[in-house]
Amino acid sequence: MPASGTSKTLHHGLQVLELLVQHPSGLTLTEIADGIGVHRTVAHRLVKTLEAHYLCRRDRFKRISLGTGLVRLAEPVEQDLRTLARPVLEELSDSAQASAHLVVRENADQVRMLMIVEPRRAPMHVAFRSGQLDPIGRGSAGLALLAAAPPVPGEREEVTRARERGFAVSKGEIAPGITGISAVVHTGRDHPETSIGLSLFEAPNPDELGRLVVTAAKRLSTQLT
Known about the structure:
Elements: H1 8-22, H2 29-36, H3 40-52, E1 56-58, E2 64-66, H4 69-74, H5 79-96, E3 99-105, E4 110-117, E5 133-135, H6 140-147, H7 157-165, E6 168-171, E7 179-185, E8 194-200, H8 206-224
Antiparallel strand pairs: 1-2, 3-4, 3-8, 4-5, 6-7, 7-8
């Protein structure tokens, strides 16, 4: 249910877009209606409105998918941060031969994957989808952000440990079998709280990888502050 004081129609329209993000090959109108819990007639009006703004489109089989209008809307989002972060992430990814990620704090309870760069020469690597939301208390990215704040009663041992050594390590918290290593990026007031890190299948030497991540975080911090 939408929050009190908000637009129910807009809420449902955004639900359609979020649903289509999860199904890049597209959905039928009935699947959309069922997916967001509305009548097919309501879903039809929502999709027609989104189509008029090029936010979704139908193929010749009448399956509905995201539209190119979203590219224009998304381009300005944290553009400076993403532009500066890309070469840092690319260098980190190539050095560690692992996927490198940039994560921002979305709200008090969640973090969002803003960007991920995959290694160019690694035989295997971890793949995530940009934009995904995760709980701030799970995964190295969120733990690193929590560790940047003063200690609080009852905090996880991993947060305390991250504060002591300057980077956070998690194992299997976002995806089974995946290790995350992240450090906070000091961005100043113009950007959200941010962390940079690595996601990989195996981390035989987390301290060495942690040093790479901290170096990358400091490099990006210097450019942003």
